[in-house]
What does this fold into?
Amino acid sequence: MTDAMVSTLPDADMQAAPKALLRAAQRAREIARQTNTRLVLVRAGELVEEIVTDPQPAAPEARRVT
It folds into this structure.
């Protein structure tokens, strides 16, 4: 996890949210790859369908969570 994905919120549950979101995204990629299903996501404001061949994203985009 990059520094940009660290929550600055005081609530412990909210501090754990960025890691949980990364785990959920990874699991979605794994399932899409295993079932040969397209992964639907938003990139640069555009809705994109992606065929997953690699369980790791090609270019991870980190955003600061505040």
Strands lie at 38-43, 46-51. The two ends are 15 Å apart (CA to CA).
